[in-house]
Write a structure and sequence with these properties.
The complex is a heterodimer of chains A (494) and B (351). Chain A is elongated and about 80 Å long. With 494 residues, chain A is α/β, with parallel strands linked by helices. In chain A, the strands form four sheets. Chain A has a six-stranded mixed sheet, sandwiched between helices. In chain A, strands 17-18-19-14-20-21 form a six-stranded mixed sheet, with helices on both faces. Chain A has 17 helices and 21 strands. Chain A has three domains: 234 residues, 3-Layer(aba) Sandwich (Rossmann fold), CATH 3.40.50; 171 residues, P-loop containing nucleotide triphosphate hydrolases (Rossmann fold, 3-Layer(aba) Sandwich), CATH 3.40.50.300; 66 residues, no CATH class. In chain A, 33% of the residues lie in helices and 25% in strands. Chain B has 351 residues and is mostly helical. Chain B is built from 13 helices and five strands. Chain B has a two-stranded antiparallel sheet with strand order 2-5. In chain B, a hairpin with a 2-residue loop joins strand 3 and strand 4. The longest helix of chain B has 46 residues. Chain B is globular, with a radius of gyration of 24 Å. Chain B starts with 10 loop residues before the first strand and ends with a helix. At the A-B interface, helix 2, helix 4, strand 7, helix 5 and helix 6 of A face strand 1, helix 8, helix 9 and helix 13 of B. Strand 7 of chain A pairs parallel with strand 1 of chain B, so a sheet runs across the interface.
């Protein structure tokens, strides 16, 4: 019923879809799976009219379609249930469902009674019992997800796209949602279902399409493949010798973290890092890795946790104090909470360490600062090699280098880097990797948090797999024998 | 869509606790009533007709501005320029009638149109530059105040016809015209905001622009319309004020924007957008008017009036923040419960 052919899409010169095909049949549940950044969300956003494709074609029931606007897609019978809920908490369930296609009287006033009645009919059809008059904000997340489904099918949807609808649901709520989805299939709807949870996909879907790096890899009947096949198709890349060698030798424990909890995000996290060791934190987006790191340095509140740095118990009450002690965190969000975009390279590099550049009058010495900035520009190969260039003018890769230089200038004993090479080109990536290994070799403990599995495996001497706010597995990788399949088998809910 | 025959329903959700907004309205209403009765008992004559008129006229222009401000605040914005628009309307309508000799009706229509254009410009700049409304409307406030001063040389304009003065001092059913205007405008706008599909979009935008866009709402168009509406109401208040005072002066309505915002906030609207009602704003306006009147009739130092206004505003804001915190905590508890549940189910499987 839906036939997508050779769709391409680029963002700012970065191609995320390379001619992807997708064929969805009438009355089937079609699973879409792939690693983070494989292009799943982009593809479905194009189908639902939220983004425009660069090229390729799309046919709905044999008719070519090209949606300029989500509302057009909805009217044509394609509705999407978003990963982040698109509901308005202060409005009633019925009003949310009929947003932009309200039942109206002649003067444009909302006909509340008719909307509530139709909403009740939709809920009846879904087999759920939600009062259409209550405010959405008073419902549980699971219930809100069902309202979102009701909203999607209220447009008389023929095709329902669900982007990770279960990521915030409990097992019970997931089971309820699945019952609803199966009912809708029985009524002839087609459903495209995105999830990271393999067990779910096998439980609910009829066919499955794997995307990788913006390419269509395979489409299979669910009965004909196994979870291992799917994992292999999802990752299926060769690492090559892109990464620096593993630790030659490691010293004693430099950093020890015990019992870190953050209510709702991280539970009882304990681990230690040795001098010269790079520890990788792998896991799916939303598994709580970044939240754990931010709780450790106290960028976010934590309910418990104690730390030892070089065998001595240490405490801090904010990231600045942690930094002064030598525990430095590099944010995953370089533009938002990493760099001062309007400052030049020199001022960014010294942003955390200004005190050190005071002259004898207590004022900042421009010459000392400039000299230091120039050494970093050389060391990190920052281009253009101009310490007066503003951070906003640099490319993503060079911004990331400046960010790392800023952390290095704090002289860390324990460096935590979160997504150190996200959206960075291959050259900058290799340089950042080499500098991180150099740093470890100089006796510093390094933690790399990354959603990119080849990076975690290629860089780390030891890998901690995060899942559901805690460590699901610890894998020794000194000989580089850990595979993506191994990591994935712990990261995903099998 | 055919309902299927289901003998059992799988999921049931019961109606959640008490609606916090209603608690706030009832509380505000009772407090207002208490202040009114207490001041009447203490000082007498508060509930007399003459005093009630004074009480109402004291806040009516801010109240009219607050009606428009309600739309703006629900959408997640703010309009600081209303008081400048108010004074501009006074001056423009006066100049048109007295200096240009334009008939009353035409002068009013031209003035309202000019105010509408100012509001539309506010809205246009906000959506085009993607700058916070506080900056854009502050720019309008300062610019327009300068214009008001310059075109009047700081002097007031007077000498209106009796027809025009009716708009400020005339009575319908024994009530002053501005009060009748406020009541009618509140009723009409209240119904529109509560039930009209176009204005319901304001809540969606205030709840979040991303969901609004995903739902197919033309966010820019709605914003321009509500800033226009807000400025037209401020202009209408200005025209009536000129008639009330018998003169137009650039200093009239100075800082009225803060009272209008306070009335909306005290009336229970979330200053971050997404919630609020015309009914709440009316209650907030009446509350501020009653408290002000209690001070005027009492022998208490009237300078303390602003202290009470300020404290009430702070309490209203703290209350809404408290409710927000409760919601956040509830969400975190849900997350934690889910983590616990997932962790237990994984352990069971591995055993």
């Amino acid at each position: 019923m839906l036939n997508v052919r050779a769709v391409t899409k680029s963002f700012f010169g970065n191609q995320v879809l390379h001619g992807v095909d997708l064929e969805v049949r009438e009355g089937e549940i079609h699973a879409l799976i792939g690693e983070n950044g494989a292009g799943k969300s982009t593809l479905v956003n194009i189908i639902a009219g939220i983004m425009r494709r660069d090229s390729g074609s799309m046919e709905l029931k044999g008719e070519p379609v090209n949606f300029a606007h989500p509302l057009e897609a909805m009217r044509a019978g394609i509705s999407m249930v978003h990963q982040e809920l698109s509901l308005v908490p202060n409005l009633s369930v019925a009003e949310n469902i009929f947003l932009r296609h309200e039942s109206k009287t002649a003067l444009g006033f909302n006909d509340w009674r008719s909307m509530r009645q139709t909403a009740a009919k939709i809920f009846e059809r879904m087999g759920v019992d939600i009062d259409p008059a209550v405010l959405v904000g008073s419902l549980s997340v699971g219930m809100q997800q069902l309202v979102e489904v009701a909203k999607a099918i209220s447009f008389d949807a023929k095709l329902l796209i669900m982007d990770e609808p279960t990521s915030s649901l409990s097992e019970k709520e997931t089971a309820e949602l699945f019952a609803v989805v199966r009912d809708l299939r029985a009524q002839g709807l087609s459903i495209v279902f995105i999830s990271h949870k393999l067990s779910e996909l096998f439980a609910i879907s009829d066919r499955l399409t794997v995307l990788r790096d913006g390419h269509h890899i395979a489409t299979n009947d669910i009965a004909q493949i196994t979870a291992d096949d799917v994992i292999r198709m999802m990752v299926g890349r060769h690492l090559g010798d892109l990464y620096p060698p593993k630790a030659a030798q490691m010293g004693g424990t430099v950093f020890e973290c015990s019992g870190v909890s953050r209510f709702g995000y991280v539970r009882d996290l304990s681990f230690s890092v040795r001098r010269g060791e790079i520890v990788g934190f792998a896991g799916l987006v939303g598994s709580g890795r970044t939240e754990a790191m931010r709780a450790i340095i106290k960028a976010d509140p934590r309910s418990s946790g104690s730390f030892k740095l070089e065998e001595k118990a240490v405490v801090w009450s904010d990231p600045g104090e942690a930094m002064d002690l030598g525990v430095v965190y590099v944010s995953e969000d370089r533009k938002g909470s990493g760099l001062f975009l309007d400052f030049n390279v020199g001022r960014n590099v010294a942003a955390s360490t200004l005190k050190r550049y005071r002259n004898r009058f207590g004022l900042i010495s421009r010459s000392a600062l400039a000299e230091k900035a120039r050494t970093y520009v050389d060391m990190m190969d920052i281009r253009p090699p101009n310490i007066d260039a503003r951070a906003i003018e640099l490319s993503g890769g060079n911004q990331q280098k400046v960010l790392l230089a800023k952390a290095l200038d704090c002289r860390p004993k324990m460096l935590i880097v979160d997504e150190p090479t996200r959206g960075v080109d291959v050259g900058a990536k290799a340089l950042i990797h080499a500098r991180l290994r150099d740093l470890a070799n100089s006796g510093v403990g390094v933690i790399i948090v990354s959603s990119e599995m080849p990076e975690v495996i290629g860089m780390s001497d030891r890998i901690l797999v995060f899942r559901n706010g805690e460590i699901a597995a610890e894998l020794d990788n000194r000989l580089g024998q850990v595979t993506q399949e191994m990591v994935m088998s712990y990261a995903a809910y099998k | 869509m055919l309902p299927t025959n289901k003998t059992t329903t799988r999921v049931t959700e019961k109606r959640g606790g008490i609606n916090t907004a209603y608690v706030q309205y009832v509380g505000l209403f009772l407090i207002t009533l208490t202040v009114l009765i207490a001041s009447h008992q203490t000082f007498g004559n508060v509930l007399a007709g003459a005093n009630l008129e004074v009480l109402a006229m004291n806040m009516v222009f801010e109240g009219i501005m607050a009606l428009g401000m309600t739309f703006v605040i629900i959408s997640g914005g703010i309009d600081l320029s209303v008081a400048a628009v108010f004074a501009f309307a006074e001056i423009l309508v006066a100049k048109l009638m007295i200096e240009a000799g334009v008939p009353v009706a035409a002068a009013i229509i031209i003035t309202l149109g000019a105010c509408g254009i100012i509001g539309a410009l506010n809205g246009l700049m906000i959506v085009a530059f993607r700058v916070h409304p506080i900056i854009i409307t502050m720019g309008t406030l300062l610019t327009l105040r300068g214009v008001n001063l310059a075109i009047t040389d700081g002097r007031s304009i007077s000498g209106f016809s009796n027809d025009f003065l009716f708009l400020g001092t005339g009575k319908i059913l024994g009530m002053n015209f501005p009060i009748v205007f406020f009541i009618v405008a509140a009723l009409v706008l209240g119904v529109l905001l509560a039930h009209h599909s176009f204005f319901r979009q304001v809540y969606v935008i205030g709840g979040g622009e991303r969901p609004a866009r995903l739902s197919g709402i033309n966010v820019n168009r709605v914003k321009i319309v509500i800033y226009t509406l807000c400025a037209v109401l401020a202009g209408a208040a200005g025209i009536m004020a000129a008639a009330r005072y018998g003169a137009a002066h650039w200093g009239h309505g100075n800082l009225a924007e803060l009272k209008a915002i306070a009335a909306v906030a005290v009336g229970g609207a979330n200053i971050n957008g997404g919630s609020g009602t015309i009914g709440g704003t009316v209650l907030g306006t009446v509350f501020l008017a009653v408290v002000h009147n209690a001070f005027v009739t009492s022998t208490v130092n009237p300078f303390l009036y602003d202290v009470v206004n300020g404290v009430m505003l702070l309490i209203a804001v703290l209350l809404s923040r408290f409710i927000q915190r409760q919601n956040e905590h509830a969400q975190q508890r849900t997350r934690q419960a889910k983590m616990d549940q997932l962790a237990t189910s994984t352990e069971e499987k591995s055993e």
